[in-house]
Amino acid sequence: MKWHDLTGDTCPLARAMGVVGDRWTLLILRECFLGVRRFDGFQKRLGVTRHLLAERLKRLEAMGVLERRPYQERPLRHEYRLTASGKEFAPVLLAMQDWAQHNLPSQEPAPFTFVTRDTGAQVDPVLTDKNTGQELNHKTVLMVLSEAAPDETIQASASDPVSDPVSDTGTEH
Predict the structure, then answer these.
(1) pLDDT at 107 (0 to 100)
(2) pTM listed for this prediction
(3) CB-hemisphere CA count at 13 Å for 139?
(4) Among 15, 18, 24, 84, whose CB has the most other CB atoms within 10 angstroms?
(5) pLDDT tens sequence across 105-116
């Protein structure tokens, strides 16, 4: 199965990975949030091949994450802008950067950071439940099968008992 074939999967995580599940796509989205809009800008900053970049931009456009707008008529040239769906990806990038800063530290300072629009202060992200305000993390949330899970998933799960990953002291294989 190709990575983009996941977009029809019933699992939301699989569908998301079908759209943004490779490094170039994530880096293109990073550049969009840094203000890059034009093909040559993406290509220059990322060093990705033109063919691969064109393919990823078309995919992001087809999935409704980016929209292509003309900025020049002769010759016709386009720029790429985040759609509402694309803008909603910002917290995912924020969470990924925060995770990497804590778990994959670098000797060099990060080339960018996230700051609040109103004060310019650097943010220290925390994911919370919008209904209760409770912090969401591995200690407060469990991923469980829903009633909508396919029968084969439920049967496989029944034969392989699920343990609580937080209280587990062994290593996962």
Answers:
(1) 93
(2) 0.81
(3) 2
(4) 18
(5) 999 998 888 999
Identify the H or E element spanning 78. Answer: strand 77-82
More confident position, 82 or 109: 82
Selection from 118, 121, 125, 128 nearest residue 97 by Cα:
125
Amino acid identity at 125: P
Whose structure tokens read 């000797």? 107
Please work out, in degrees rounded to the nearest 5, the angle formed at the alpha carbon of residue 103 by the alpha carbons of 145 and 16. Answer: 40
3-state secondary structure 124-148: CCCCECCCCCCECCCCCCCCCCCCC
- pLDDT of 173 reads 43
Q: What are phi and psi of 128, to 5 degrees?
A: -130, 160
SS3 67: strand
The answer to whether 53 and 64 have CB atoms below 8 angstroms apart is: no
Q: Is the dihedral of CA 108, 128, 120, 33 positive or negative?
A: positive
Beta-carbon count within 10 A of 29 CB? 22
Q: Is pLDDT above 90 for 7?
A: no
Q: Which residues, 6+ apart, have CB-to-CB distance to 18 below 8 Å? A: 3, 4, 5, 6, 7, 8, 9
CA 56 centroid distance within chain: 14
